[in-house]
């Protein structure tokens, strides 16, 4: 995923949310609408989230060190996970609390034209931000649905901005409905109901973001298409005859680790095997440029060993050896 594309969408969302947050707080000051206060906090939280994504992208560019030999690519996942926490706590839970308070102490909305005018402005601004995120994501999405794009994307920035902007637009519609009903009926309870709906929406989006970024933090393998390309690049038919087993891991959105045990012929010399490994690494990097770290182990293929299936105790996450339990 293009880092520049993600940055463009983040900056567009940040600018829109800062302007929208200021206008919502002004509208709240004049009208006393709890929906406007919740939406103002929501936009402020979104602005902080976009700042977190920019910081994460910057920190991820640091060079590898002896203490962190695979670099800092996962910083982007960590900061994306922080976004979900901020959205849940500052955005969602605050809105639910504010809505509950409004239901307990409802009052009519003063100067109704302030919240209505600001909400219309916010919908226009958020639509611009959402359009930018869609435009940057569409070439990367390919033939996948938007749901699949959010679930499969290895770079977190664009999915996060897409979900935030989508949630913001739906939240604005809910706020407009709550404020409108409160104005028409003269009953401030509708404003509180709209505020609670906004909070529930933000909590749901935060939970989706948390689940997706948690998976990235744990470490995801390459996608099916990339896996097929790597396996095809490994086998040359001359020295490397097959892939015995392979593991891949995203060290970051644009950096992939490949570890594989490859079958070579029993009568090949050490020089021939070394040259074949070098050639296989070159083919992998040509087929999948983000494959930056590659470890290949030569072995003699055995039908009998293959029939036993994978060795779970030799696999990360497999059962621990009894002697290791204390």
Describe it.
The protein is mainly alpha-helical. Helix content is 66%, strand content 10%. The chain has helices at residues 3-31, 34-59, 75-104, 113-141, 146-152, 157-185, 189-218, 224-234, 270-287, 303-307; strands at 240-252, 255-264, 291-299. It has a 3-stranded mixed beta sheet.
Write a brief caption for the model:
The chain has 326 residues and is mainly alpha-helical. It is built from ten helices and three strands, in the order H-H-H-H-H-H-H-H-E-E-H-E-H.
In this structure, how is the largest beta sheet organized? 3 strands, mixed
User: Whole-number average pLDDT?
Assistant: 84
- Helicity, in percent? 55-70%
What's the helix-strand series? HHHHHHHHEEHEH
Question: Spatial order of the strands in the main sheet?
Answer: 1-2-3
User: What is the SS-derived class?
Assistant: mainly alpha
For the record, give the distance between the C-alpha atoms at the N and C termini, rounded to a whole number: 44 Å
Total of helices: 10
Radius of gyration: 26 Å
Low-confidence blocks of residues? 1-5, 321-326
Key descriptive features of the protein:
disordered C terminus; 326 residues; 3-stranded mixed sheet; 10 helices; elongated; 66% helix; mainly alpha; 10% strand
């Amino acid at each position: 995923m293009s880092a520049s594309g993600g940055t463009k969408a983040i900056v567009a969302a940040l600018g829109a949310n800062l302007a929208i947050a200021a206008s919502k707080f002004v509208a709240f000051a004049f009208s006393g609408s709890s929906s406007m206060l919740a939406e103002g906090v929501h936009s402020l939280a979104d602005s902080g989230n976009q700042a977190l994504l920019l910081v994460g992208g910057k920190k991820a560019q640091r060079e590898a060190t002896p203490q962190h030999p695979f670099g800092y690519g996962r910083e982007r996942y960590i900061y994306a996970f922080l976004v979900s926490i901020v959205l849940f706590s500052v955005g969602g839970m605050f809105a639910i609390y504010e809505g509950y308070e409004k239901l307990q102490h409802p009052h009519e909305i003063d100067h109704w034209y302030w919240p209505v005018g600001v909400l219309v402005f916010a919908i226009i601004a958020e639509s611009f931000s959402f359009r930018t995120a869609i435009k940057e994501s569409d070439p990367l999405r390919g033939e996948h649905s938007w749901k699949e794009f959010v679930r499969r994307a290895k770079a977190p920035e664009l999915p996060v901005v897409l979900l935030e902007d989508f949630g913001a637009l739906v939240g604005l519609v809910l706020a407009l409905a709550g404020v409108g009903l409160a104005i028409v009926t003269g009953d401030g309870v509708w404003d509180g109901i709209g505020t609670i709906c906004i909070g529930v929406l933000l909590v749901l989006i935060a939970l989706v973001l948390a689940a997706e970024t948690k998976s990235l933090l744990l470490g995801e393998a390459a996608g099916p298409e990339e896996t097929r390309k790597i396996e095809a690049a490994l086998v040359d038919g001359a020295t490397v005859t097959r892939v015995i087993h392979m593991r891949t891991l995203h060290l970051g959105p644009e950096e992939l680790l490949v570890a594989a045990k490859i079958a070579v012929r029993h009568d090949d010399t050490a020089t021939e095997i070394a040259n074949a490994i070098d050639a296989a690494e070159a083919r992998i990097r040509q087929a999948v440029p983000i494959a930056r770290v590659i470890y290949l182990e030569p072995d003699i293929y055995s039908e009998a060993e293959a029939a036993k299936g994978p060795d779970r105790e030799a696999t990360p996450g497999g059962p621990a050896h009894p002697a290791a339990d204390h």
